Amino acid sequence: MTEYLRVLSKVFMHMKSALRFQQIGHKSIYNYLEAANFENLGIEIWPGYLPRLSLKEGGPMLFIKPLHQVIRNTESVLDRIKLVRDIGIDRGIDYKAEVQSLVT
Predict the structure, then answer these.
(1) Whether pTM exceeds 0.85
(2) Strands in the chain per DSSP E
(3) What are the phi and psi torsion angles at 44 (to 5°)?
(4) Do 94 and 84 touch, CB atoms closer than 8 A?
């Protein structure tokens, strides 16, 4: 019976690759191609699932738990420094201290 689990596990790994799903964490699989993008909030929500194979009395059982992953669209440190610098210059304040507080 454990041989069935190994074969099914390999089938799922090939399906994940063929569908171009992204694995996050140990076993969670997400579909980044179907992500819902909320630009005004700066986040994406990726649909996904957590498959689990186990042996039961009647044979192998597949459990699938639907999941969603929230991905924050982050800006780079350089982008943030430029933003703080531009705001500081516009307001006529010392932006260097603010940048140092962000970086450290």
Answers:
(1) no
(2) 22-24, 28-30, 36-38, 43-56, 59-72
(3) -125, 145
(4) no
